[in-house]
Amino acid sequence: MSFPEKTGEIVAVCTSRNKGERKTDVGAAELVVGFGLAGDAHGGDWHRQVSLLAEESIAKMRAAGLDVGPGDFAENLTTRGLDLCHLPVGSRLQIGETALLELTQLGKVCHERCAIFYQAGDCVMPREGIFAVVKRGGLVKVGDRIQLVSTDTVD
Questions:
Q1: Nearby residues of 155 by Cβ (< 8 Å), 6 or more positions away
Q2: Dihedral (CA of 142, 148, 150, 153) sign
Q3: Comparing C-alpha atoms, which of 88, 65, 70 is closest to residue 80?
């Protein structure tokens, strides 16, 4: 089934060596089943292997006066054109030719306020970031298409 209105593109692929720091756009990386994005500190066998945030969400923080961009919210994949924060848990997203993610969590609870919160008094990641597990691995790179392929959980 095709959802042409449910597509977007990858504008950044970001990793960090340590948890609790902003990520750097590396341009391309491998999505690994059971882990997440190769080379990223947040990877592992858990339900938040990959984090995604829309460029449109980052623009809201820019409008609040912050000089922020992809990776500054510790997201792995920054997207454009796909309404991430309104997708239901269980949605599946294909990236490029082979990679497949399954949405496991919408937003998150921030137990400690991040630097962005202290600068702006707000942060979009807890409300508009999404988290996923890798169901099928593959290379993900800037410019790849990201497409909603299912809103049903299927193994």
A1: none
A2: positive
A3: 70
Provide the Cα torsion 88, 90, 91, 93; round to 10°. 140
As a whole number of angstroms, the distance between CA 147 and CA 73 comes to 22
**Would you list the domain boundaries of the chain?**
4-150
| pLDDT tens per residue across span 118-138 | 454 556 666 788 999 999 999
Alpha helices in 12-124 (DSSP H): 55-63, 115-120
The CATH class given to the 4-150 domain equals mainly beta
The identity of residue 50, as a single letter, is V
Dist CA 8 CA 81 (whole Å): 4
Note the pLDDT of residue 110: 59
